[in-house]
Amino acid sequence: MSSSHPLHFNLIAAAHAAMIERGFQPDFPEGTESELKEISAEPPIGASDQFQDLRHLLWSSIDNDTSKDLDQIEWAERLSDGRIRILVGVADVDVRVVQGSIIDSHARSETTSVYTGVKVFPMLPTELSEGITSLNENEDRAAVVIEFTISPGGCVADGKAYRAIVRNQAQLAYNSVGEWLEGSGPAPEKVAANADLAAQLKLQDEAALHMVGCRFQHGALDLETVETRPVMLADEAVDIKKLQKNRATSLIEEFMVSANGVIARTFEQAGVASIRRVVRTPKRWDRIVQMADGLGTHLPQEPDSKALNDFLLAQRSKDPDHFPDLSLTIVKLMGPGEYVLVRPNESSPGHFGLAVQDYTHSTAPNRRFPDMVTQRLLKALFEKKSQPYSQDDLEAIAQRCTLMEDAARKVEREMQKRIAAVVLHPRIGQSFRGIITGVNQYGTFVRTLDPHAEGMVVRGGKGLDVGDKVIVKLVSTNPERGFIDFAA
After folding, report:
1. Contact call for residues 366 and 134 (beta carbons, < 8 A)
2. pLDDT tens string 101-136
3. Which SS3 state, helix, strand or coil, does residue 356 take?
4. How far is 11 from 239, CA to CA, in rounded Å?
5. What is the architecture, at CATH level 2, of domain 428-487?
6. Domain boundaries, the chain
C-alpha cells in the first residue's frame, strides 16, 4: 500500500550534526559579530591609483537560481583582429577580511562553504559572503579583474590581472540564460529588456564555444555526473530536481578555467610559491583501460586524456542512459582533486580532467579559502611587498583544504541520501523506472530515473546485473541512515 503521509524529519538538524561529525564548526566563533560591525563601518572603496574604475562596463553574473554569494562577473568585447577580450571580475574579499582576524581564522579552519541542499553552511558570515563582499546587482564593489583574449581557434593569450571597482548590472541564472542561448526558451526578462546585454551574452557564448572546442582537442574530459537539488516547500523537501548542464554553465566554466590558468601562470612567471588545484594522472589507468576494453574500445597503455575523451564521446552517443554512471566510474578511478604547494621553478602536477597544466583556484573567494589565499599572494605581487604566507604555511593550508573538501563531499553525499529518503517516503508502494548501478557482496544497487535517487534492491534482485533497466517498487526509506529499499 502506498504511504501518502510526508515524513517530518529535521533535515537541517541532520545537516548540522553531519557537519560537526565531519570536523566542521558550523557556528561562527565568539568575536565574529564585533568584527562584522567594524567591517560594516568601513567606508566604501572608490577608484584610486590602486583601483581602475570599470563601473561603466556592462558586467553581468550567471549563477544558480538560488545563489546569493556572488563571486564573479563577466564582460567581453570583440577586437578589430577578430579575437574576443574577456574580463572576469572576482570579488575582492581580502580587502574586507583581514588576515589573522577571527573571521579569517575560522575560514582557514573550515576552508569551504558546504551546500547541503537544505542549508548552506558558509565559510564566511552571510553578512559578508551574501552582502558586503558579494558582487550583488547594482552595488559598487572592489574586485580583482582577470583579463585574457580568445582567438577564433579558442586559444587563450595576453593574460593579466589588476584591481578595479566594478558594478554588476545584471544578476542572471544558469537555467534561463542557458535555455535562451540554446534556443529552447525565451530570453530572461533582463536580457529581453536590454539589447546591449543580449549582444554581450551572445559574444561571451561565442568565446566559450571556441574555448571548449580547443580544450577538448587537447584532451579535456567531457563527463556527465548527475547533480541534484531538493525542491523545498517551507522547510520540507518535497521533490528532487536534476540539475542540467547547458551553454550558460559551460560559458562560466570555460571563463573560470582560463582565469585560473592566468593566475597560475602569473605566479609561475614571477617566481612566487602558490597553492595549485590538481588532479593527478590516474594511478588506476590500467583499470580504465580494462573497462574500455569491456566496452569494445582499446585505450593506450599510458595515460592519454585525449584518447579517453574520444572514448567517452563515443559512449555518450552509443549509450546515453548509462553515460552518467560511466562518468562517475571514471571520476572515481581518476581520484579526487587536491590542493598542493608549487614552489618557484617547480612544475605543477597539472589537472588531468581539464587537460591544463597551470591551474589554481582564484575565482570563488567568498566560498573557498584557497581563493582568498591566492588573492593575498596576488595583491602582494601587485604592490611589490613580501609574500603574506611562508611556503610551510602554504603547504599546511593546502593539506587542510584537501582534507576539508573531502569532508564536505561526504556531508553533501550523506545529505543527498537523506533528502531522497524523505522525498520518497510518501511514495512507498509506488513503482519507478531504474538502472542497476552496482552488484557486489553487499547487495544490488539501483538508480531511479525520476526522481533521481539511489537505493538497494532488497527483494527480487537475483540475476540482475549492472546496466539492466528495471521497474522497482519502493518498500521503505530510512532518512536517519539515508537508506532507500526497493523490490524488483
Report:
1. yes
2. 999 999 999 999 999 999 999 999 999 999 999 999
3. strand
4. 14
5. Beta Barrel (2.40)
6. 11-280+338-413, 285-334, 428-487
Kindly report the CA angle at 63 between 60 and 66, in degrees rounded to 5? Answer: 125
Provide the total of helices (H) and of strands (E) in the chain, helices listed first.
13, 17
Residue pair 452/468 in contact by the 8 Å Cβ criterion: no
Would residue 100 be called left, alpha or beta, if left means φ above 0 and alpha means ψ between -120 and 50 degrees? Answer: left
pTM (predicted TM-score): 0.89
- Residue 229: beta bridge partners? 241
Under 8 Å between Cβ of 141 and 135: yes
As given in the structure block, the three cell numbers for residue 254 are: 570555460
Neighbours of 146 (CB within 10 A): 27
**Residues recorded for the chain:** 488
**C-beta separation of 376 from 104 below 8 A:** no
Strand pairing of 72-78 and 84-91? antiparallel
pLDDT digits (tens, 9 = 90+) for 147-186: 999 999 888 999 999 999 999 999 999 999 999 999 999 9
Cα separation of 459 and 219, whole Å?
43
